[in-house]
Amino acid sequence: MPGITDIRFEHHHPRDIGIGESCPRISWSYTGEDRDWVQEFYTIEVSRHGVTKSYSIRSSQCLFVPWPSAPLSSMEVSLIRVRASDDEGNLTEWSDIATVEVGLLHREDWKCQLIHADHVERPEYNHRPIVFKREFSLQQHIRRARLYITAHGIYSAKLNGKPISDHVLSPGWTDYNNRLVYQTSDITSLLEFDHNMLHVTVAPGWHCGRLGWGSGKTNIYSSDLGVIALLRVDYENGDISMLGTDRKWQWGYGPTISAELYDGEVFDASQSLSPLTQWGSVDCKPIGDRLEAPDGPPIKRTQEVHPIAILTSPSGQRIIDMGQNMVGWLRIKVIGGATGHRIQLQFAEALEDGECALRTLRNAKARDTVIMTEQGTLEWEPEFTYHGFRYVGVDGWPGVLTIDSVKGIVVHTDMKRTGSFSCSNPLLNKLHENIVWSMRGNFVGIPTDCPQRDERLGWTGDINVFADAGNFLYRIGGTLKTWLDDLKYEQQEAKGIVPLVIPNVIDGFDQDAHAIWGDVAVMLPWSLYRATGDTQMLARQYSSMKAWLDVIPRRENQLWDYISDWKLGDWLDPAAPADDCGKATTNPSFVSDAFLAHVTTLMKNISEILKEPQDAQKYSKDSEEIHSAFAHEYITPAGLVANSTQTAFALAIQFNLLPSEKQQSHAAQYLSKIIREVYRYKIGTGFAGTPYIGHALSKVGLSDIFYRMLLCRKNPSWLYPVTMGATTVWERWDSMLPDGSINSGDMTSFNHYALGSVASWMHSVILGFRIEEAGWKKIKIEPIPGGGLRWASGEYLSGFGLYRVRWLVVEGPEKQHERLWVEVQVPPNTSADVKLPNSEEWNHIGSGSYSWTVPFQSTQWPPDPMVLPFGQQEAFPVDESLPCPWDMKV
């Protein structure tokens, strides 16, 4: 029988405490390889206040099952376990017991106030981090204790000198005008029986620190650093005590002199807290924030990276090479150093002429400073900033700097990894690894564009084009649910227009509606629904979706009518000038109208799912009219489109904008022709076309063409950065030029995940995974080998359990005698349709493990040399295949 595992509530991590739902939906996964196993019944056992009740339901549902008991109360703890049976009544074992613990659901639960410093000694100290402290004693034996805490700013809390949790950069970034997220920490083991000391240090962070490019803005949400905290202690005798932020707290300054997200942190060890620290009184205010428990996981330290080398620059600076472009900070260990001695750490993503390349940071200093005191050994890492970097220039290090002196600390939202990919081509593996690193580095609380320069904002276009790839790689439903809540709020503030960034801190920059960026209101909830099976993802955002479609300026034919001439369009088309990334070769109106047709069709589907028949009828009619108008405006009877570009053809094919099969066939031929003869297999797409060019080619049977594009190493291509030593995805196709110099454009990041959207094709074509029913309840598996690949392997941990695909080209005595071995694993309570190469038949399978061996003839690889002008030829480079990493019986 299958086993039940991973019981979770809403989109929370199973270990999360202090959730914000009184009736949390329950999900569970299955383990095992039982053939064709389907859940017929489930039983949920709920233990509350010492009373246990069981609830049995006839249903195959195991994702987002309704809460069966009465609503939970604030701070209530309940124990849950689950078992299930198949249609023959065979019972699984009970799952392990899962705990659900509710946070503070109501404003009246917060028996505390907002505290902040009663004065600021000097104006330049306005944003110096502040330490708040509270001493207290306990006189009874403790059963459990919880600290509910948040801040105006980002905070670090220590109880009796120990961190209250492993979270960092809390409370994260939401639109604080809309709501402020709080955290719940189990501090039972940190409390002493008698005397206790709670210190909370608060730095500007996103609340009042500098945000945005150029000089940016400060004090966007407020100008005061403050804390809201409530400590609840449950004693063994049944008594309860509460201790909240009030006038009994004090404030002072600690060793952190300054801390800004963009500029870095300054730490003076001589000013560490001591009996000589001066403390002042706090001012109190009623809580004006809407306080909410988090929907997604916190930001944490997730990995340690060890340097690979210590370099010396031409100017004599010592430079640490981490070997990986990463997001986080350095942890240093310094021995010696006189009082007042300064160590400076300058963070950079790349080197130029052997020195740290700082121009690309623009107005972000990205520098940490440590001021020493004579105390022998100092171990330090920042708490209130983060950097995007591979290299660290070091000045003032006392003694010898070695690779053992520092560690790189990787920091990002603690998302659960769900998807994997590997194959016989090492460059493709490195590309996929780079995509994963870029996603990690750009999920620091919210989905950002980049993690290093004076920006790091929640650009809507970036996450929109990357969502399908991201949903495969990590479980991100909770994180993006929070972000979409802020999008809806900001959209209401902007009268229906979706701002370019969420939270919107550039409200004076551009207030117009933009396709793709605004289309995230429809496309991202749809992607999340498809990945998770959570219909509430659609229902919560439905009003936002409708508002977006209503506010789009239209012509009489329903297509876009731009008020402004400037459009983002196919942003970062490789042919665009370095100083004008929006000047793409594809007509931006074409791009906007293509996406309008797509999102209108999605709205028809969403309305049907949500059982909104009138809306479904409206959007169905709108979709037909827009498709007709689009075809009239942009498509010839022969299947040509208004622009003969990769992006134009890709969107027309992928979004079903070509009215007839004949036109689609001709469009496919034209697209293939320009890729070969005009682009010579190099990429020619920006934000709009990159996610779809591979899918469009595969849709019309031209996967071999895209394999050649994917494996191209010339600039621009996906593998060009890999051959240049990239360890993350670049913002531009040519952020670094072939001679090692850095692109002259003002926007040149070496860590942007958007162009990594190609991972979606790698997952759905090389591996063959395609969602058929939302949540991966049913999928299609149709791997398409090519590009000289000898094997590929991948897994996806769905809400139901683990899917796996592996395939291997088995060599015969001659090429025409090759065979293809395919292995598939499908989790219990799901099914799949499998299609093997060179077959038109679909094999329907239930859960379990299956394998097939079929005749196969791989395409010619390497392909024939490409004929260049004047009769020259260019051979296609080929890497030696990696050996297959698993054993099999064929």
TrEMBL record:
Segments forming domain Alpha-L-rhamnosidase six-hairpin glycosidase: 416-765
The reaction(s) this protein catalyses: Hydrolysis of terminal non-reducing alpha-L-rhamnose residues in alpha-L-rhamnosides
GO biological process, one term: carbohydrate metabolic process
Domain of life of the native organism: Eukaryota
Chain ranges of the Alpha-L-rhamnosidase C-terminal domain: 772-841
Pfam families: Bac_rhamnosid, Bac_rhamnosid6H, Bac_rhamnosid_C, Bac_rhamnosid_N, Ig_Rha78A_N
InterPro entries per UniProt: 6-hairpin_glycosidase_sf, 6hp_glycosidase-like_sf, Alpha_rhamnosid, Bac_rhamnosid6H, Bac_rhamnosid_C, Bac_rhamnosid_N, Ig-like_fold, Rhamnosid_concanavalin
The keyword Phosphoprotein appears for this protein: no
Protein name: alpha-L-rhamnosidase
Native source organism of the sequence: Penicillium concentricum
Lineage of the organism: Eukaryota, Fungi, Dikarya, Ascomycota, Pezizomycotina
